[in-house]
Amino acid sequence: MGTAGEHRIAALGAEHAEQVLEIYRFGIDEGHATFETTAPTWEEFDATRLRQHRHVALDDSCRVLGWVAAVPVSDRCAYAGVVEHSVYVHPEARGRGVGSSLLRALFGSTEAAGVWTIQSGIFPENTSSLALHQRAGFRVVGTREHIGRHRGVWRDVVLVERRSPLVA
After folding, report:
1. 105, 53 contact by CB (below 8 A)
2. Residue 13 belongs to a domain
């Protein structure tokens, strides 16, 4: 999958669908990325993620190393500037700055659109994701204890958010 640091960011589109969903499945299979147990179809993914806030990291062969996407948290106008995001990096591409690059791309697109808050829920066992988000300027705002069952076990979710320094 290329060497460390060699990637570019592009808009996530249908041409990336197969690889994006494969990376999503890796996260699902590892057990600490999501409550989901199966990846959505491309049609479901495409219909629910905000197009202007979907990015991929590509290596020099145009292979997808990771992706980030956001969804609105509510259709109420008071929450128009708040999105929830997911970021996934291929297991072979971790530790190479891919997640950080994807989050920076998300910050750029959301701030250009007037989004003031990006939030997410992360399993506490996903320490690499928590560290990535802390380095990117997210703060922990709380923990939802025993919020849902996953694979027969009650799971907690750490809530993180980043407030834009540019959008108020």
Report:
1. no
2. yes
> How does pLDDT run across 108-153, given as a tens digit for each residue?
999 999 999 999 999 999 999 999 999 999 999 999 999 999 999 9
**Gap between the terminal Cα atoms of the chain:** 39
Q: Which residues contact 153 (CB under 8 A, 6 or more apart)?
A: none
Looking at the DSSP bridge assignments, the partners of residue 144 are: 157
Which letter does DSSP use for residue 118 in this model?
E
- Within-domain flag for 1: no
With H, G, I as helix, E, B as strand and everything else as coil, classify residue 122: strand
The domain total for the chain is: 1
CA 149 and chain centroid, separation: 21
The 10s digit of each residue's pLDDT in 72-83 is 999 999 999 999
Chain centroid to CA 60: 22
Determine contact, residues 158/140, Cβ cutoff 8 Å.
yes
Task: Provide the domain limits for residue 121.
Answer: 8-163
The domain that contains 55 carries what CATH number? 3.40.630.30
Q: Say if 149 falls within a structural domain.
A: yes
